[in-house]
Amino acid sequence: MKIGRSERSAGYPVVRLRRLRRTPAIRDLLQETHLSVKDLISPIFVQEQLTKREAIQSMPGIERIPASEIIDEVQALSDNGIRSIILFGVPSHKDAKAQSAFSDDGIVQQSIREVRKHFGDKVAIITDVCLCQYTTHGHCGIVVREKVDNDVSLRTLTRVAASHAEAGADMVAPSAMMDGQVKAIRERLDANSFKDVAIIAYSAKHASPLYSPFRDVACSQPRFGDRTTYQMSYNNPREAMHEIQMDIDEGADIIMIKPALPYLDLIYHAKENTNLPICAFSVSGEYALIKAAADNGLIHEDSVVTEFLTSIKRAGADLIITYYAKKMAALLNE
Ligand code: PBG
Ligand code: ZN
Prior knowledge:
The protein is α/β, with parallel strands linked by helices. The protein has a domain of 211 residues: TIM Barrel, CATH 3.20.20.70. 38% of the residues lie in helices and 17% in strands. The protein is built from 11 helices and 12 strands. An 8-stranded parallel beta barrel has the order 1-4-5-8-9-10-11-12, surrounded by 9 helices. Strand 10, helix 8 and strand 11 form a beta-alpha-beta unit. Helix 3 runs parallel beside helix 4 and helix 4 packs across helix 5. The longest helix has 18 residues. The relative contact order is 0.13. The mean pLDDT is 96. Bound molecules: ligand PBG and zinc ion (ZN). Zinc ion binds next to loops.
């Protein structure tokens, strides 16, 4: 749509847009964007060998939980209407090969089984498929001669995805930004008779300083270098569309853009140019920014959370991963 002075404007009476803003009932009737609890996915951090819930300084209000607490956590979410979770594991063992990431009794695999056993298909279980929490160096892939080796990493990532599927995950979300990861995982899942397990591709995952609270929580800060050789530059919107196109070609079921709030242009563009469901990940730093301002009394938390999440939906996101899922659900249910 082009917005400019229209030819018929001359001589017409004032257009009174305020007519439709007059009362709450009228405003409700005309509301264009509707955020729903069904759009929201809640992250959960499960930590191996933890005995009780642990608060995290860099993300006030968010906790790492032991596997024994996962049923309670999912119950609390589902009581609020949130029926989708994304699991992040915090293992006790790290090594160069990320072995605890694909172990049968790994923390994520264990958690998936627990949730599945207790909730059956009432909850959609998504898992983050990456290596950074599991490697000693903290990179998302396997390091060979000081470099993150793409194709060697693919072998490990496919094992991780298959182990999550085996444990009962509904969807796996590869987030390592290795080239070909969606294709490799799709092939492995199909070969292992997990044809029904979907892939949410972290397609346009940007190298962003907004992940730092997450890395604190997940203990996944890289020990050397940074992630710019695999995560995208936020300067390159066309490259982001290329990443998305590649993931669609490789067999992704849902594409993701991450972070969310500073990337609404990309969400909008993806929505206009693809037909796949679009997931936006409103990351840890986005949460931390709101939280810090609210805790200092500078903004009203509930209103800002509502505005920000609605904006992400308005831009075109069908699904939103947010650390505010539970709170937003409670607000929507009021
Ligand atoms: C794992 C992963 C990260 C996030 C999601 N999956 C961290 C990273 O890439 O360093 C970030 C999530 C957040 O900040 O909330 N690779
Ligand atoms: Zn990673």
